[in-house]
């Protein structure tokens, strides 16, 4: 169990002149027992950051502390961590039993019988006790994933590192394993770093999310903070599926003029915005309402492009009727509501759900209203949010 | 937190850097040592070939000497050497082509189709390599005389094929095992016949394996001596035999021998450099390759 | 000439290669032989990479012109040649009409692979005794060409002879005030002096490598000089475990072990030669006179400091150096034996032989007349010629019985073991004797 | 219902011309056409010489006429072992095979691992080409030049050892012939192991290595427990092929020592050579060859059974 | 363009005695231009069925007809189909251009210039025109996928076959490509078979779903039919994410006695059920309501196990308070509703949304009510539903 401090860490790959900055001056504190999820687009440096914690890469600048020790000069061997890899990285020549014992044999002085006891009990916990004599090649994807987890757990390390551990599984298994990892981490209380680019995992697993883009830290906070109180346009667009809809426009005299429609800014909004000119309005698909007729000035006519029925809900892709471009935005509607393509409707954007971003920097200027206290209380402590629980 | 950050941090980094440097120094020290072990005899060979006759074995050695291409000029003025060298190049190259033509399709079939007793078939194929040439040269002499293959280039090409066939089949079977079957299926769906799928899709994908096995086959055939000795007379004499001619029963022409040996290394080195980049991927014997 | 393996185009010879021979055809045409009877045919010659080949090749166009027979050479180093010859003979392929013959002569004869030449000698269209002059040949050579005494028919025609002599470094002898050894003790003493006085120079070198033509060729001289012989009672007693043989072996083994190069047991002709050429040895124990051209040639760093003398002998022994002849023969399966015989006759005839020795660096004549030829003596040096002639006259060649290769090989292995220090000379010779006798009895 | 035949036709059945028919025949039976030439060549180069040697080993005097042959049972085999030194040469061969195989494998592997870790691609290529070159030196050249380089009087290697190191050069060929032969073969053929191991190493997934690092395994254990087992197919095939090739080594050793001093380096192949070409005991040579072939085939089968193709090609 | 008929097709792998039945007596008609999606768990025979249509496997029994021709004896070459593989199967040695031309060169007599024209126009349509000279190894996953699609499209075949073509892409790309394939198929109107095990793809892409399990056909129908009118418990559980909740129980006197609660069957239900005893009640997570107090007899007390907040919604895992086992069921609630773990609430299952299944065979006995006409009209023609549109 350990606290992890990442202090002004930068990682550059390649030679001096044409180097790639994979991680750019990131600082982060992770509490003992906390479950932190790294998210970000491909190439944003998630893996690199985690691998530096593991000791598999050496940072170019900055310090990494695990527990009370600066581990900069330690190899992975000395850091007492366990890692779960995307492709499991099970040793193909060893049985499950051997795979799970390997770490203990290598890094502890435990007697063989002690090791066996530990492995057996972990295997039972993971429901793979009956597979102990099989080789990885004989297991299904889900079973392999369980073994990989078990191999990490049995070592009882200071820190778990997991790099997209579920991405090779199919949807059903992924859901199952997700809950399992969550439960395990709760039970074991081991500090855990977890990389994913799956929305659901990001939202449901971690105590806190760390959002990265181009190697830079975008936001650190609970999943709901990131969802409801995005620090900038990037986070707003990245968290949530389908993505938040953005409308670029220019604020002039209390109205935001977008492509095809104008939107009256509420007083609260005008306060937040101040003198900014170029803005982006953000609204989540589930917050837009589609009506048969215009309900107020903030409604505008849209043409339905595609309807994707998902069962209980449908995603409706709409095009603003008067706009010049072909862009569409998404609206979530009830699954049984009959909407057909090319139909004309009126979209309504409720002022309380609107986010506003600086058109140039993407910085958040205005946040939506919230019924509960998720956002307001959390937003302030965003950077240093403790191990708050994932539920409300 | 900020108190003891900068100083120890940078010094630790320094230590880590030095550790990595030490690893790298040790690595290159070992590699350079072996390079020396490899190069020294080759250097000596080269220097013998570049010294005037009679100076080849002088001790203490003239580490510095005025190199002369005299020996090479001599060598290439001997029409027999040029003929034998050309002979060998043609025969060995032809044999490599032929052994690939025979071995690669067979390896493909062994990899893709259910062959009864596949293991035994593979061991049988390998067994063609188990008898010392000396024990099989007489029967081949018979066959060759009766089929009028004696002292023909075709005969030697066939002989070289027999030396290398097992290797080609083994290496290529393993290589084909690593090529996804969907590739051929895609080709068949695209309208290719099975053969077209093999030729246009699978074969090009097997390039690393083919090049690797080609160079190794080339070397094995290039340095072959015994069959060349017994199965040729004048028309199809390989260069190895000619190299032997500098070893008289009375005296050895050291400089010429060295020059000829060096000349023999050159085609292999050229070939090696050409296919160098494929070698890493070509011989991994069915261990699935990283992309 | 065309075809053939090896350095027949210009190897070993500089300018004399392109048919520079100018022997008048008349010298052959005066013989009562129908040279032209096989015009437009072709013969294959299987030859060892040997100075004889280099020496005769320039003259071959004359043969071709004389007879209209094309000559195709197949030239290989000794070991490779043996392999090829054996393949050819044992499979009855008969690709060589004429080929070099050595210690295996009786083995080949016994297997029925060799064709006796007597019928051709009896054919008056092929042979003219008065022209050919067989009496000019050394008796030892003729004896070896009759199966080394095991046959009363010609097994081949002798082409070269070499005899045991000793070579020494005149400069070192002078420096240390040594006199040329006549006895084995003196020889050993000389080796000791040089060995101990010169740091980079071995006292002596000698062929220790196994092989039926290698180390035992030398030992056979000494065992005869110690008063014994091979096969004191053929095929029951090999003579290899007699006191004489053991003494000879002891002397030779100890000499090489004490004053020879470290790896004497593996040295071959070319190793010995190179060591001497590089000036790293005081003298050669006693080996063939044919070292002479190379020791004194341009490749030698001590070319002008080499002396030659008769091989030493035990103080109370009889001087009888070993002599060895190459002969050329024809096989049962050869397709052009008659043409081949014409070639043998031509090649060993007086005009050709003399020409080779006067004009083409040869120094191995089986004909006594050459050794007495002044032009030749002045070319090769008076000492060399005289000592070789004297030695040849006293020479006692080895008899090559039909299993000589087999037991000779094992005998030479035993000797090599002794030189390498793996066992004592006595034990080695006793073992060799057992093996040799077993080979005939079992 | 109709049960279609196993081989589907590639084209719709239309009236077809000659060429089309040939093409269809070609495509429908492709495996047969593909494997037939290989099978033919293999039958020729395995069965014929094998049968010939077996035949020779059973008769008294070598003759091609089977009806005239005088079959003598196993007497050639007993001669091979009583007087032919078959046992001795088998032992020598096994010594050479085992030690050279170990040396070449270990060295090849270490070099491959070191080269694989080199950062710069160019330097890597350089080592890769350089390390393969020794294979290209013909045995003739290697043996002859090797002999002179090792010569205790005029050889460069003893000279360098004597003058540049505190050691005295041993007499390579007479005092330690077996070791010299093994070392020479190591120089010559380590490249073969090197290049194959190198290829194998480049295919080990990085994550596997990283997993073992995280698991706390020190360097050598990483190789022993993770990397080498992963490369098992490569190691297996490379050593198998090299082993077979080592068993028939001839040229270099014969050129270096002719099997000597005495019979200290008399490999089976050299023994067969001498029986055949020196002693003219073709039948005994054939007997040794037969014993030897049986032994090598058995050994390969044992190795294959022990190590197994499992995990090699499945 | 062609109609495909699969007629009593069975495929067995392996020898006679220990053979695996991969596809078990499947019959299916696919209309010209229809987009049919095969779904089912791993190993259910989806790929095998598709490969038989392609001619890459030969069926053990049955006939396959493409257009008017029985193609049993034809190899893939003769069937005029194009296929997109899961791992793309691009020819690694050929450029994109060559990859795309290959099929045309092999199967048509087009001139080189004609081929080039076709390839270029298709490449433009797919947005890969600038990649034509690259080799596949130089492309990103998404680009490779586009090339694979382009390669299929350019051939203008009778039938498209796609075997999990998107499963190697990441979530974002997958969404993008999904819409793209949909649009393409609409435009081109080529009969398409599509294998997936992704819920979203299954629901949104096809005109009809073919649900397979253990090689047997479970249901054929529009996605919404399968969602709202599942033919059996397997389909009900397989379609929809999270899965439908099932409660096993015994019907006795109008009440279904489940583990921990009893459920009063409505009259309509009792009619459907008839005399069945062992039943399973099915209810989708979005249809269950959580109240602070019991609302009627069909409410029961639940303890909250885990809450997974997903942003706009949360998944709440509940345990029936009185039940014996540890099983939980999922309820979907609004994302801003404050629910915490271990809290006690009352779940209510609205009778109109309930499905009932035969406990033994899994056959559907009772279907939920529907507001619109999706189910009722479609349910009857389930097996032979035509190419109805995916929207309502
Ligand atoms: N060994 C390396 N050498 C050079 N560049 C590298 C190396 N490893 C990573 N990079 C670069 O660093 C950046 C960050 O890579 P990283 O693997 O950390 O991204 P990621 O967020 O994990 O992406 P993904 O979601 O695709 O796994 C990328 O631009 C990548 O190209
Ligand atoms: N070539 C084969 N030999 C033997 N059995 C096979 C073969 N191909 C498939 N099978 C078996 O047939 C059954 C169906 O396999 P299939 O690949 O069609 O499933 P799938 O539905 O495509 O699964 P997935 O979703 O995993 O791709 C499986 O039990 C599989 O093991
Ligand atoms: Mg990553
Ligand atoms: Mg599948």
From TrEMBL, chains A, E:
<keyword id="KW-0813">Transport</keyword>
<keyword id="KW-0067">ATP-binding</keyword>
<dbReference type="InterPro" id="IPR003439">
    <property type="entry name" value="ABC_transporter-like_ATP-bd"/>
</dbReference>
<dbReference type="GO" id="GO:0016887">
    <property type="term" value="F:ATP hydrolysis activity"/>
</dbReference>
<dbReference type="InterPro" id="IPR003593">
    <property type="entry name" value="AAA+_ATPase"/>
</dbReference>
<dbReference type="InterPro" id="IPR008995">
    <property type="entry name" value="Mo/tungstate-bd_C_term_dom"/>
</dbReference>
<keyword id="KW-0472">Membrane</keyword>
<dbReference type="GO" id="GO:0140359">
    <property type="term" value="F:ABC-type transporter activity"/>
</dbReference>
<dbReference type="Pfam" id="PF00005">
    <property type="entry name" value="ABC_tran"/>
</dbReference>
<dbReference type="GO" id="GO:0008643">
    <property type="term" value="P:carbohydrate transport"/>
</dbReference>
<comment type="function">
    <text>Part of the ABC transporter complex XacGHIJK involved in the uptake of xylose and arabinose. Responsible for energy coupling to the transport system.</text>
</comment>
<dbReference type="GO" id="GO:0005524">
    <property type="term" value="F:ATP binding"/>
</dbReference>
<dbReference type="InterPro" id="IPR017871">
    <property type="entry name" value="ABC_transporter-like_CS"/>
</dbReference>
<keyword id="KW-1003">Cell membrane</keyword>
<dbReference type="GO" id="GO:0055052">
    <property type="term" value="C:ATP-binding cassette (ABC) transporter complex, substrate-binding subunit-containing"/>
</dbReference>
TrEMBL record, chain B:
<keyword id="KW-0813">Transport</keyword>
<keyword id="KW-0812">Transmembrane</keyword>
<feature type="transmembrane region" description="Helical">
    <location>
        <begin position="252"/>
        <end position="275"/>
    </location>
</feature>
<protein>
    <submittedName>
        <fullName>Carbohydrate ABC transporter membrane protein 2, CUT1 family</fullName>
    </submittedName>
</protein>
<dbReference type="GO" id="GO:0005886">
    <property type="term" value="C:plasma membrane"/>
</dbReference>
<feature type="domain" description="ABC transmembrane type-1">
    <location>
        <begin position="85"/>
        <end position="275"/>
    </location>
</feature>
<dbReference type="InterPro" id="IPR050901">
    <property type="entry name" value="BP-dep_ABC_trans_perm"/>
</dbReference>
<dbReference type="InterPro" id="IPR035906">
    <property type="entry name" value="MetI-like_sf"/>
</dbReference>
<dbReference type="InterPro" id="IPR000515">
    <property type="entry name" value="MetI-like"/>
</dbReference>
<feature type="transmembrane region" description="Helical">
    <location>
        <begin position="156"/>
        <end position="176"/>
    </location>
</feature>
<keyword id="KW-0472">Membrane</keyword>
<feature type="transmembrane region" description="Helical">
    <location>
        <begin position="209"/>
        <end position="232"/>
    </location>
</feature>
<keyword id="KW-1133">Transmembrane helix</keyword>
<keyword id="KW-1003">Cell membrane</keyword>
<dbReference type="Pfam" id="PF00528">
    <property type="entry name" value="BPD_transp_1"/>
</dbReference>
UniProtKB/TrEMBL annotation, chain D:
<dbReference type="InterPro" id="IPR000515">
    <property type="entry name" value="MetI-like"/>
</dbReference>
<keyword id="KW-0472">Membrane</keyword>
<feature type="transmembrane region" description="Helical">
    <location>
        <begin position="30"/>
        <end position="52"/>
    </location>
</feature>
<feature type="transmembrane region" description="Helical">
    <location>
        <begin position="129"/>
        <end position="150"/>
    </location>
</feature>
<dbReference type="Pfam" id="PF00528">
    <property type="entry name" value="BPD_transp_1"/>
</dbReference>
<keyword id="KW-0813">Transport</keyword>
<dbReference type="InterPro" id="IPR052730">
    <property type="entry name" value="Sugar_ABC_transporter"/>
</dbReference>
<keyword id="KW-1133">Transmembrane helix</keyword>
<dbReference type="GO" id="GO:0055085">
    <property type="term" value="P:transmembrane transport"/>
</dbReference>
<feature type="domain" description="ABC transmembrane type-1">
    <location>
        <begin position="90"/>
        <end position="303"/>
    </location>
</feature>
<dbReference type="GO" id="GO:0005886">
    <property type="term" value="C:plasma membrane"/>
</dbReference>
<feature type="transmembrane region" description="Helical">
    <location>
        <begin position="90"/>
        <end position="117"/>
    </location>
</feature>
<comment type="similarity">
    <text>Belongs to the binding-protein-dependent transport system permease family.</text>
</comment>
<feature type="transmembrane region" description="Helical">
    <location>
        <begin position="223"/>
        <end position="241"/>
    </location>
</feature>
<protein>
    <submittedName>
        <fullName>Carbohydrate ABC transporter membrane protein 1, CUT1 family</fullName>
    </submittedName>
</protein>
């Amino acid at each position: 169990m350990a606290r992890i401090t990442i202090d002004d860490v930068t990682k550059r790959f390649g030679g001096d002149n044409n180097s790639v900055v994979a991680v750019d001056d990131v600082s982060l504190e992770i509490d003992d027992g906390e479950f932190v999820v790294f998210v970000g687009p491909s190439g944003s440096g998630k893996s690199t950051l985690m691998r530096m914690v593991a000791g598999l890469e050496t940072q170019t600048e900055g310090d990494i502390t695990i527990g009370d020790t600066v581990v900069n000069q330690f190899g992975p061997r000395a850091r007492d961590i366990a890692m779960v890899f995307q492709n499991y990285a099970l040793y193909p020549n060893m049985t499950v039993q051997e795979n799970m014992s390997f770490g203990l044999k290598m890094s502890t002085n435990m007697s063989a019988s002690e090791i066996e006891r530990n492995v057996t009990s972990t295997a039972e916990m993971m429901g793979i006790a009956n597979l102990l004599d099989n080789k990885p090649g004989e297991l299904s994807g889900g079973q392999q994933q369980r073994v990989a987890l078990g191999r990490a757990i049995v070592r009882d390390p200071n820190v778990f590192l997991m790099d997209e551990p579920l991405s090779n599984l199919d949807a059903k298994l992924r859901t199952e394993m997700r809950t399992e990892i969550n439960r395990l981490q709760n039970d074991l209380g081991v500090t855990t770093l977890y990389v994913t680019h799956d929305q659901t995992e990001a939202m449901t697993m971690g105590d806190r999310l760390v959002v990265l883009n181009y190697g830079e830290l975008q936001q650190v906070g609970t999943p709901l903070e990131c969802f409801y109180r995005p620090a900038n346009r990037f986070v707003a667009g990245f968290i949530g599926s389908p993505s938040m809809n953005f409308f670029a426009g220019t604020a002039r005299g209390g109205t935001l003029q977008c492509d095809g429609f104008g939107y009256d800014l509420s007083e609260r909004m005008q306060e937040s915005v101040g003198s900014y000119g170029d803005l982006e309005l953000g609204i989540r698909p589930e917050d837009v309402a589609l009506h048969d007729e215009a309900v107020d000035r903030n409604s505008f006519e849209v043409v339905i492009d595609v309807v994707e029925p998902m069962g209980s809900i449908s995603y409706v892709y709409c095009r603003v009727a008067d706009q010049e471009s072909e862009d569409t935005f998404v609206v979530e509607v009830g699954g049984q509501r009959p909407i057909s393509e090319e139909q004309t409707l009126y979209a309504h954007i409720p002022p309380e759900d609107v986010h506003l971003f600086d058109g140039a920097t993407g910085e958040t200027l205005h946040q939506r209203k919230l019924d509960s206290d998720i956002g307001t209380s959390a937003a302030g402590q965003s950077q240093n949010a403790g191990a708050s629980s994932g539920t409300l | 937190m900020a108190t003891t950050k900068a100083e120890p941090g940078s010094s630790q980094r320094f230590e880590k850097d030095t550790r990595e440097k030490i690893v790298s120094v040790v690595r290159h020290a070992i590699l350079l040592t072996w390079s020396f072990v490899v190069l020294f005899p080759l250097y000596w060979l080269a220097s013998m070939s570049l010294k005037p006759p009679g100076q080849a074995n002088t001790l203490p050695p003239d580490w510095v000497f005025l190199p002369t291409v005299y020996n090479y000029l001599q060598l290439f003025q001997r029409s027999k050497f040029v003929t034998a060298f050309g002979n060998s190049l043609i025969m060995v190259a032809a044999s490599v082509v032929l052994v690939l033509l025979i071995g690669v399709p067979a390896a493909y079939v062994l990899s893709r189709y259910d062959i009864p007793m596949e293991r035994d078939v593979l061991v049988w194929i390998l067994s063609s390599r188990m008898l010392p040439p000396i024990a099989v040269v007489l029967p081949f002499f018979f066959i060759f005389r009766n089929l009028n293959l004696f002292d023909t280039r075709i005969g030697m090409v066939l002989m070289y094929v027999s030396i290398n066939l097992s290797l080609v089949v083994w290496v290529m079977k393993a290589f084909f095992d690593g090529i996804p079957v969907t590739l051929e299926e895609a080709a068949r769906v695209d309208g290719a016949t099975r053969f077209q799928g093999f030729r246009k899709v699978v074969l090009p994908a097997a390039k690393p394996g083919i090049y690797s096995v080609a160079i190794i086959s080339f070397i094995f055939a290039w340095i072959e001596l015994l069959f060349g000795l017994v199965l040729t007379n004048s028309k199809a004499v390989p260069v190895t035999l000619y190299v032997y001619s500098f070893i008289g029963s009375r005296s050895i022409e050291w400089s010429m021998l060295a020059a000829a040996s060096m000349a023999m290394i050159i085609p292999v080195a050229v070939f090696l450099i050409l296919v160098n980049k494929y070698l890493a991927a070509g011989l991994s014997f069915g261990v699935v390759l990283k992309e | 000439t065309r075809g053939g393996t090896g350095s027949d185009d210009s190897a070993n010879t500089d300018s004399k290669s392109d048919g520079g021979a100018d022997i008048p055809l008349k010298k052959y045409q005066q013989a009562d032989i129908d040279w032209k009877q096989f015009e437009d045919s072709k013969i294959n010659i299987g030859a060892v990479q040997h100075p004889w080949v280099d020496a005769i090749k320039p003259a071959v166009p004359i043969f071709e012109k004389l007879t209209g027979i094309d000559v195709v050479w197949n030239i290989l180093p000794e070991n490779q040649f043996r392999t090829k010859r054996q393949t050819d003979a044992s499979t009855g392929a008969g690709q060589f009409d004429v080929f070099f013959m050595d210690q295996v002569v009786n083995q080949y004869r016994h297997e029925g692979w060799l064709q006796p030449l007597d019928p051709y000698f009896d054919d008056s269209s092929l042979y003219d005794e008065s022209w050919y002059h067989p009496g000019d040949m050394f008796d030892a050579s003729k004896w070896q060409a009759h199966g080394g005494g095991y046959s009363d028919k010609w097994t081949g025609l002798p082409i070269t002879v070499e005899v045991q002599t000793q070579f020494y470094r005149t400069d070192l002898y002078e420096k240390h005030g040594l006199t040329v050894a006549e006895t084995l003790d003196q020889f050993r003493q000389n080796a000791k002096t040089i060995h101990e006085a010169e740091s980079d120079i071995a006292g002596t070198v000698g062929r220790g490598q196994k092989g039926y033509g290698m180390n035992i060729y030398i030992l056979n001289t000494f065992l005869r000089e110690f008063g014994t012989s091979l096969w004191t009672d053929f095929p029951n007693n090999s003579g290899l475990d007699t006191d004489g043989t053991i003494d000879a072996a002891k002397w030779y083994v100890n000499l090489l072990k004490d004053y020879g190069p470290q790896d004497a047991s593996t040295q071959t002709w070319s190793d010995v030669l190179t060591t001497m050429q590089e000036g790293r040895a005081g003298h050669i124990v006693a080996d063939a006179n044919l070292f002479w051209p190379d020791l004194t040639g341009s490749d030698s760093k001590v070319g002008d400091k080499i002396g030659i003398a008769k091989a030493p002998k035990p103080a109370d022994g009889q001087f009888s150096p070993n002599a060895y002849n190459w002969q050329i023969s024809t096989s049962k399966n050869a397709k052009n034996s008659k043409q081949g015989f014409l070639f043998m006759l031509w090649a060993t005839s007086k005009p050709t032989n003399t020409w080779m020795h006067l004009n083409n660096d040869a120094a191995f004549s089986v004909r006594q007349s050459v050794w007495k030829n002044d032009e030749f003596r002045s070319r090769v040096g008076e000492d060399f010629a005289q000592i070789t002639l004297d030695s040849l006259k006293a020479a006692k060649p080895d008899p090559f019985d039909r299993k000589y290769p087999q037991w000779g090989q094992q005998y030479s292995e035993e000797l090599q073991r002794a030189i390498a220090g793996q066992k004592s000379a006595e034990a080695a010779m006793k073992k060799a004797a057992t093996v040799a006798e077993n080979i005939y009895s079992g | 219902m109709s049960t279609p035949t196993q081989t589907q036709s590639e084209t719709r059945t239309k009236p077809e011309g000659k060429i089309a028919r040939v093409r269809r025949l070609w495509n429908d039976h492709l495996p047969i056409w593909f494997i037939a030439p290989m099978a033919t060549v293999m039958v020729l180069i395995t069965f014929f010489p094998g049968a010939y040697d077996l035949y020779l080993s059973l008769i008294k005097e070598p003759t091609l006429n089977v009806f005239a042959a005088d079959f003598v049972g196993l007497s050639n085999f007993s001669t091979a072992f009583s007087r032919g030194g078959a046992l001795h040469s088998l032992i020598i061969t096994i010594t050479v095979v085992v030690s050279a195989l170990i040396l070449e494998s270990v060295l090849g592997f270490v070099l491959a691992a070191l080269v694989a870790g080199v950062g710069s691609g160019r330097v890597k290529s350089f080592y890769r080409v350089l390390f393969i070159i020794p294979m290209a030196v013909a045995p003739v050249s290697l043996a002859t030049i090797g002999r002179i380089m090792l010569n205790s009087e005029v050889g460069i290697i003893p000279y360098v050892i004597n003058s540049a190191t505190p050691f005295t050069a041993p007499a390579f060929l007479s005092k330690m012939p077996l070791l010299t032969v093994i070392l020479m073969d190591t120089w010559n053929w380590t490249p073969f192991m090197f290049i194959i191991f190198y290829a194998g190493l480049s295919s080990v997934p990085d994550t596997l290595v990283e997993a073992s690092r995280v698991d706390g395994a020190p360097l050598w254990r990483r190789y022993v427990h993770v990397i080498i087992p992963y490369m098992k197919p490569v190691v297996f095939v490379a050593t198998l092929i090299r082993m077979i090739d080592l068993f028939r080594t001839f040229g270099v050793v014969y050129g270096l020592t002719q099997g000597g001093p005495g019979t200290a380096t008399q490999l089976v192949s050299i023994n067969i050579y001498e029986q055949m070409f020196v002693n003219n005991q073709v039948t005994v040579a054939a007997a040794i060859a037969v014993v030897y072939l049986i032994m090598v085939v058995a050994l390969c089968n044992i190795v294959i059974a022990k190590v197994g193709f499992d995990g090699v090609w499945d």
